[in-house]
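ingest -> validate -> predict -> emit
validate: passed (alphabet ok, no gaps, 320 aa)
predict: started
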Amino acid sequence: MIRLLRRMYAVIRWFFRPAIVRRKVIDGVRSPRLRAMPGKGRTFVFRGTDNLDRMFKGLGEIWDREWRSLFLPEHSILIKINLNTADPYPASTDPVMLTALLGFLRERNLPRLWVGDCSSVRSVPTRKTVAKTGILGAISGMADFLCFDDGPWVSVPIPGRYMKEVTVPRFALEADRIISLANIKSHREADFSLGMKLAVGFVHPVERFPLHRDHLHEKIPEISLAVPPDLTIIDGRTVFITGGPDTGERARCDTVIVGTDIVATDVTAYGILVDAKKKNNRMMGFTDDPFGMVQFAHARDVGLVESPVPRPTIISVEDD
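emit:
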């Protein structure tokens, strides 16, 4: 009887699933997005980030030196967050971190800010998911929220091996700048979730079924051929060292990684994750060499990797 009721519930959910999951409406074809700062980027690792004020103060010195001309007041800036589900940080973006980031950007006279995502297939519509979190309160008065599943969507041809096109929100291609705000998580299906994995939230929900069906590890970096971010921030203060993306065993790492090259930033974050897994005897198939993992190896195959990967600059922001 219980099994029958579960099947009936699944059938009911299938028939009453959101329209965005049932069909795909495409509003034209667009070229892949171009990064504002192509070529080799720099990666910075902030350690001892319990105090976000101190962390963003340190970031401000780097920003004013390295990236002031990259982000101008007239630019529309999309902050792509992690809202796969409504589960709390580190499963999703930490509202406290998001508030601090938005305040940091507004202090630099960058007023045209949007925060956006499209939740997982089982969590759409995104407007219901975000209502269960503290995100709307975190951005109030500083940015508008975009539910990508509200559309419109455009198709982007890409030179991938496993994906020849990807359907993404039109706004992701129209925004002047994209900042990815990712977390560090192990992932049951993708091994790990960092900056490249965050881009799955750009993919139309209908396309996520075949995305996860096969070669997921390789398809993840191929999405960034369509919508590469200009800056990637990876919040590694607390990480999932097992499970993921929604639940898992946690470890405190007190680290935030910031960089303009998504793969170099991910490689650095991967090192933080591996160190935490080693300390807790949770390696579980992970390799010391990031390019021993399929995500990174394929990112190199499709031309996303600058060679050699630049070494990060380590900055301590611990209290004196």
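The longest helix spans residues 262-279.
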